[in-house]
Each structure stands twice: as structure tokens, then as C-alpha cells.
Specification:
homodimer, 219 residues, alpha+beta, Pnp Oxidase, Chain A, 6-stranded antiparallel barrel, 6 helices
Chain lengths: 219, 219
């Protein structure tokens, strides 16, 4: 996959060594997270809303109710900033000054357009459902035409993007390595808990394999 | 603690039953996360940057290098939107349409000011360090005057805010409860992994109790 050209908009200024511009790196950060933070400027005022996203090639899909203010704004074609962040650990340096976090973040820029074609909409709903949990689309009760109408979906071609990543142990000043202060990394990760069965589940319905396996994939 | 008055800016429009305006709820969401997403409108264009935050009463503290574009923008007193989100689970409904996520999010609005007083700055650095890991401030090598100068800290009085929370099992359409489709919640949470000792750690330095206990507090 190719790189996004470095421009004034997407260039990582602080600690440029942590910057990445290749789609492979950026898209793996985007795909690893179920939610993103969508930034909008409405009447010059910033608004940041968390929402589920899915990637379809070089496009980000967002969806919600037809009454969603966020989606109505996105559908106007306004400039957007979509940010995805993973916190991977606390970096405990010897000096307060060099404390940090290990993280992977991606910042994407683009403008959205409403998906109106019913088939394109259905395909996008499948992408969302399969992102939430692979295998669900074929198992769940699929959207009726009225449900599809009540859902607004936008697609946002990614104009430009960059990623910023920190990994590894702390970096202290040379003279501080002699100090009797513990240093290292406390890793963090997201895990699934025990499945909680809907109290209203019909008798005799077992957990399907694809859910069972998915739930065990991050424990 | 009191409530933030509902205004056009902070009111939860979609699914208003999920909206919360009391400081206790909002601040617990803010405090439970190490990072927030800061939204800015720069020349009318939205930019969303993830960063560590700390709360000091009714103010949000952000910090970074003196060269940070984000902090320089914040220091101008521009309008900001600060969003904190926890993803708590996947909500698997019988119908694709009613799939959802359990989450807690807080959206805060305010304008920042630079902290320039050296004592106020030192106090803020202590708040950040103790938020990262309680007990660290007294143990780590504290900032020198030059390190303090190289750090920019802003405080943002929270003008208004709201929270949005979803908990519990899926809500399906009445007729779908008879379907042979498994439904329930797959909970998600963040945990700490095994401590990774800095390869350059001085011989004989043990993990202090406060780090050991903290690491075991989320496993």
C-alpha cells in the first residue's frame, strides 16, 4: 500500500521520528479500534463526538439515526478530522520529565458524502456488523427497508492522514540511569469479559461458535 | 456536586434518556481515563488530538512541550471541545438494527489559559504524575527549573459539559424476541499486563509496592 504525501496538514511536527505515513500502518490502527473521535467545526466551534466506524478501502464509514446532528453535518461535505487512539502502556521513567505513554494514534482528514443507494447502504451495514463481530451479519435478523431508511450512512474518502506511535522503554537523561528509581513500562490492553446473556433470551438458544471464539480471542 | 445547566451546546439530542449533566457522573468518566481527545477549530478546520489529561476541580489540565502546536493554540484562549470515552461492551441484539455498544462518554467545553506561575506549574505536574500512577511523584526524580520551563501547561475551566451512557442488555423489537438468535452483551475493559522492566535498570532496584499494587489493580 502507498503512503500519504507529507503536507502541512498531516505532518507530525512534535517528535517527527514517531510519525508514519504509510497506509498499512495507519489502517491497522484504524481497523484495530471499534470507535473513533470525529472532529467537526460547526460555526467555528470544535465538536468532538465518539462513534463506531468501519473502513472500506480508502474510505471511513460512519452511521447513525437520520436525526443525528453529527451525521447531518458530515453529510453537508464539511471538513472532518477523524482520530483513532490506542493506549498501550504507561512509560515510567526515572525523571518525572521523561514519563510518557506508549500509544498508537491515527489522524485522518476528509469530507463525507451521504450513501443513498439502497444496495450500497446494505453493503455498508454489513461492513459495520462484521466489524463489530465477524459472523454476525449472516446470523442476526437483517435490516428491513424501513430500518435501512431510518439509518443514515456517510462515507468519507481519506484525503490525507498520519499515524504517531511510541513503543519501548523509557528514555532518561544519561546521568539519571544511576539513580535508585525503578523504571519500565506498565502495558495496557483491552480485553473481553464473560458474555452476558440477554435475560430475555429465548430458551434453548446457545452461544454460536463465532461469538464464543471471538469472546475468547482477547482474554 | 452540582449540575451543568442544559443549553443548546451541551444537551444530548439523540436518545436524551442517555444524557447526564451532573458533575459527579461527568467527572468520574473524565477521571477514569488517562487520555482525552482535544478538538480545536484552526482556521475553521477541525483538528482532534489525543493527549493525557488531568482534572483539578472544575478545570482540565493539559501539558506538553513548549513547541506543541496544540498547546500553543489552546493557550490563545480558543474554544475547545474535550471528549473522553470508555467502550464497555458490544451489544448484540437479535436484529442488526438494534446492535449497539455500551459506553460512557463525556463532552466538555471551555477555553484554556497558560499556567505561568512556577509553583502552580509544579503543582500541576504533580497532579499529572499522580494521575498516571499514584505514588510516583514522591519516588521519581522531580522536575528541574529548566525541565519545568520546557513544559507548557494549560488549564481549561469547564464552561459546560454533558455525559452520555449506555448500559445493559440489547433492546429488540417485541416480535424479534421469539427469534432463535443469540443476544446479549460482550463486555470490554482495559487491563494492565505484566510489568516490563527497563533493560537499563540499575541492578538491585526492586519494583516499589505502589507500582506493584497499581499493576495488580486492573488485571
Amino acid at each position: 500500500m502507498s503512503d500519504f504525501p507529507k503536507t502541512d496538514l498531516n505532518k507530525v511536527k512534535r517528535l517527527p521520528k514517531r510519525g508514519h505515513y504509510d497506509k498499512e500502518t495507519i489502517y491497522s490502527i484504524v481497523d484495530d479500534s471499534l470507535i473513533c473521535h470525529v472532529g467537526m467545526a460547526i460555526d467555528g466551534r470544535p465538536i468532538v463526538i465518539p462513534t463506531i466506524h468501519a473502513r472500506q478501502g480508502d474510505n471511513i464509514l460512519l452511521h447513525g439515526a437520520t436525526t443525528s446532528r453529527m451525521l447531518n453535518h458530515v453529510a453537508t461535505g464539511a471538513e472532518l478530522c477523524i482520530t483513532v487512539t490506542h493506549l498501550d502502556g504507561l512509560v515510567l521513567a526515572r525523571s518525572v520529565f521523561h514519563h510518557s505513554m506508549n500509544y498508537r494514534s491515527a489522524v485522518l482528514f476528509g469530507k463525507g458524502r451521504l450513501i443513498e443507494d439502497p444496495d450500497e447502504k446494505m453493503e455498508a451495514l454489513e461492513v459495520f456488523t462484521e466489524k463489530l463481530i465477524p459472523g454476525r451479519w449472516a446470523d442476526a435478523r437483517q435490516p428491513t427497508p424501513n430500518e435501512s431508511k431510518a439509518t443514515k450512512i456517510v462515507t468519507i474518502p481519506i484525503d490525507t492522514a498520519s499515524a504517531k506511535i511510541r513503543v519501548g522503554p523509557p528514555g532518561d537523561d544519561d546521568e539519571d540511569y544511576a539513580l535508585d528509581i525503578w523504571a519500565g513500562v506498565l502495558p495496557m490492553r483491552t480485553v473481553f469479559g464473560e458474555l452476558e446473556v440477554d435475560p430475555l433470551l429465548k430458551d434453548g438458544v446457545d452461544v454460536p461458535d463465532y461469538i464464543h471464539n471471538y469472546a475468547n480471542s482477547k482474554q
